[in-house]
Amino acid sequence: MDTIILGIESSCDDTSAAVLRNTTLLSNVIASQKVHEEWGGVIPELASRAHQQNIVPVVHKALSDANMTIDDVDAIAFTRGPGLMGSLLVGVSFAKGLALAKNIKLIDVNHLLGHILVHFVDKEGEDIKHPNFPFICLLVSGGHSQIVLMKSHLDMEIIGKTIDDAAGEAFDKCAKVMGLPYPGGPVVDKLAQKGDPNAFTFAKPSVKNFDYSFSGLKTSFLYFLQDKIEEDTDFIEKNKNDLCASLQKTIIDILMKKLIKATKEYNIKEIAVAGGVSANSGLRNAIINAGEKRGWNTYIPELKFTMDNAAMIASVGYFKYQQNQFIGMDATPVTRQSEL
């Protein structure tokens, strides 16, 4: 018998709802918030207010697009964390209220596991290749940079993580220093395609094991620009494409070095990438090229699945439903991964 999962995602600034029949995606609706662009970053209070405005119409449209009603839903899967407390509260409270009103089972989801399990979302009429277990996933976003060993759908081990800033944060903050609009990552990617990745050299940290660090790179980039601007006030404008290309290459080199090291250590050739930074064209090409060179089977999500979305939350929900892993009405949101 089919299992219908309604997924709800509200961890940051995107309100999303999706419906899955087993692993097949029936709908995936996302309402993005443009209000943060003028501030150069996500403002938590504004984000939570926008979620309150968006969540009812988004869920309604997701059910409508799937030709379902709430009475068809077997379980509601919601992002419990990590994320912004105000944003999470909206999604968690809505999911609990809807589940209570309709006597529907509740499933709490780790947002980061959701990014990884988006690789198991199917589409009607398409033959989608899924990773085989065990596999290694490079999970990179604005808030997290991790190397994760996946032993099964619900058994993940973080074998490497950032000790300070995330890769996405490095992209955005370095972009801000150059005067580029928020979010900076996609802008850097676009300009990088016109520049020389070997034009400039920036610091690459030395960190033990499979962990990452990007704070030193940000400092190196800032001081480099300060020195160059003293010589030429128009330096950034004259070299913007080369700066973006060199910055992007440095970040990707840092990410790939540890990923390759992990694949050798664990002797695994099933390699996936996930998270917002997995939309970066340079990183996607680096994964593909490394795979061809090293005999990996590589799995790269569609661009629409790299951003925060409820399809990935519903995917985790489906696999937890199969294991009867439900949660009660006392569920509360958590902002840190360590609390999950």
How would you concisely characterize the structure shown here?
The chain has 340 residues and is of the alpha/beta class.
Topology, please?
Layout: E1 4-9, E2 14-21, E3 24-32, H1 44-65, E4 75-81, H2 85-102, E5 105-110, H3 111-117, E6 135-140, E7 145-152, E8 155-161, H4 167-177, H5 184-192, H6 215-231, H7 235-266, E9 270-274, H8 281-294, E10 297-299, H9 310-322
Parallel strand pairs: 1-4, 4-5, 6-9, 9-10
Antiparallel strand pairs: 1-2, 2-3, 6-7, 7-8
Helix pairs in contact: 1-2, 3-9, 4-5, 4-6, 4-7, 5-7, 6-7, 7-8
Q: Could you give the order of strands across the largest sheet?
A: 3-2-1-4-5
Overall pLDDT metric: 94
> What's the domain count?
2
- CATH third-level topology of the largest domain: Nucleotidyltransferase, domain 5
Over the alpha carbons, how many angstroms does the gyration radius reach?
A: 20 Å
Full CATH superfamily name of the largest domain: ATPase, nucleotide binding domain
Strand and helix order: EEEHEHEHEEEHHHHEHEH
Q: Structural class of the secondary structure composition?
A: alpha/beta
Largest sheet geometry? 5 strands, mixed
User: Low-confidence spans: pLDDT under 50, at least 5 residues?
Assistant: none
Number of helices: 9
End-to-end distance: 31 Å
Q: In which range does the helix fraction lie?
A: 40-55%
Number of strand elements: 10
CATH architecture of the largest domain: 2-Layer Sandwich
> How would the global form be characterised?
globular
